[in-house]
Design goal:
The protein is α+β, with helices and mostly antiparallel strands and 297 residues long. It has one domain: 3-Layer(aba) Sandwich (Beta-lactamase). Helix content is 33%, strand content 21%. A hairpin with a 2-residue loop joins β9 and β10. α8 crosses α9. The mean pLDDT is 91.
Length: 297
Amino acid sequence: MLAQVGPASALVAVRPSDGAVLAAANGPGNAGLNIATYGQLAPGSTFKTVSSLALLRAGLRPGTSVPCTATLTVDGRRFTNYSDYPASGLGDVPLRTAVANSCNTAFISQRDELERGSGTDALAEAAGSLGLGVDHDLGFPAFFGSLEPPASETAAAADLIGQGKVLASPMVMATVMASVQEGTTVVPRLLEQVEVSVPEGVEPLQPAEARALRSLLRSVVTDGSGAQLADVPGPPVLAKTGTAEFEDGGRIDTHAWMVAAQGDLAVAVFVERGESGSSTAGPLLESFLRAARRAGG
């Protein structure tokens, strides 16, 4: 699946019903590094799954209107949407549309509501409920992600869109999707001799929250940036695309991500350099889902 990918890349598949890691593949461009389960990377807009849960807990609903503007300035820093963001998606739009089109400014505009509704740890608590940032021993090298307390308004804004100090591995982003699909916090497992369980102190994911998240992520496929997955045979596909900027040798480049869930399968695909999640990581994820259906997965 990753054999022809030039940049560093990884794919991880997790079974939501029991957390089993079904695949953890590293591409030939990784130079021997285990990015699949131990990569420490900005997840970009795939992290909006976590942000969406935090906003739901703060009182928003999938139909709540939020402002999706072309730009938004926070404490002197100007935030924008991706370069070819659809003009039809701008304006006051339902949260569902902001998720489907991946509107950065809509999410950042709700940062004050997030603090008022759920407290300063709202984002970290939501991440934990979906399996991100709750480190524990799995018996193999695994990075569950991290989310440091923001040091400024700008950092807090960047965190909401998966930049800033947010880090994740492909394994944990597959776990996030597995948790949404299963409706409870999923802990990945690979070795039978190592017992795993949800760590103490994790806020449980409630059934209504999971249903709302599945609705939001389904809209990514039916009406947004994940439309290429709409005709994948089998149960409905949930998805989220993402890009994350990083600096390399003085120039800005982008990581490409796409995550999805279908039936009892959750998948994350990462490519170190790409144009976008949908165009770079998307075809790899789609091929995997189609192959899994053909194999009866």
